[in-house]
């Protein structure tokens, strides 16, 4: 599910209302930008995620440390084929799963869970818009167009700076 619509992106791309660019074309840029941002910070909307996670000192650390984990659906040890009831886990800050009174078997765990924002942080939304603009400008500028800062990067610095600690980059 997309968090932005072509009507959200058009003003950011400085497209007039009477533009000949179709909403379908703009939506492809939105989809690509949202895919890239979700690779960095996790699902932009509540979604089912499956992660393979090693047992690290009796804990399971889920990827996307700042993306809200809504609930755990299942946790299965891939070596022992053992499962733990999902309600047994405590979700600690940083999306660390712990078991209060149980032993967590070593090895790799397959964890299925619901994660994502019910309300996307404003800077993440801005990062998606910036990523859309970056993709749009680098595709449209051509060899005679304006110099686009960061055009040699898949994700421009401005987007990374906006995401900061949401992407685990260590700065806000």
Characterise the protein shown here.
By secondary structure, the protein is α+β, with helices and mostly antiparallel strands. The protein has two domains: about 5-45 and about 120-165, no CATH class; about 45-115. The chain is about 30% helix and about 20% strand. It contains four helices and seven strands. It has helices at about 5-10, 25-40, 120-140, 155-165; strands spanning about 45-55, 60, 70-75, 85, 90, 95-100, 110-115. The two termini are about 25 Å apart.
Q: Biggest sheet, open or closed, and with what strands and sense?
A: 7 strands, antiparallel
Q: Label the structural class.
A: alpha+beta
H-E order: HHEEEEEEEHH
- Rounded to an integer in angstroms, the radius of gyration calculated over CA atoms is 20 Å
Tell me, briefly, the overall form.
elongated
Tell me the helix content: 25-40%
Uncertain stretches of 5 or more adjacent residues: 143-147
Count of spatially separate domains: 2
Distance between the ends: 26 Å
Number of helices: 4
Beta-strand content bin = 15-25%
Overall number of strands: 7
> Which strand order spans the largest sheet, edge to edge or round the barrel?
4-3-7-1-2-6-5
The residue-averaged pLDDT reads 88
């Amino acid at each position: 599910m997309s968090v932005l619509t072509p009507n959200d992106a058009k003003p950011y791309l400085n497209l007039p209302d009477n533009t000949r660019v179709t909403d379908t074309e703009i939506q492809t840029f939105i989809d690509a930008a949202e895919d890239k941002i979700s690779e960095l910070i996790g699902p932009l909307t509540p979604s089912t995620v499956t992660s393979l996670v090693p047992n690290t000192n009796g804990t399971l650390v889920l990827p996307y440390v700042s993306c809200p984990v809504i609930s755990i659906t299942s946790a299965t040890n891939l070596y022992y084929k053992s499962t733990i009831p999902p309600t047994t886990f405590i979700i600690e800050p940083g999306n660390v799963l712990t078991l209060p009174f149980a032993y967590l078997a070593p090895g790799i765990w397959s964890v299925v869970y619901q994660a994502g924002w019910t309300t996307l942080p404003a800077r993440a939304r801005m990062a998606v818009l910036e990523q859309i603009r970056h993709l749009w400008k680098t595709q449209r500028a051509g060899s005679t167009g304006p110099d686009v800062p960061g055009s040699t990067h898949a994700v421009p610095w401005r987007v990374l700076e906006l995401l900061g600690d949401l992407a685990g980059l260590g700065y806000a």
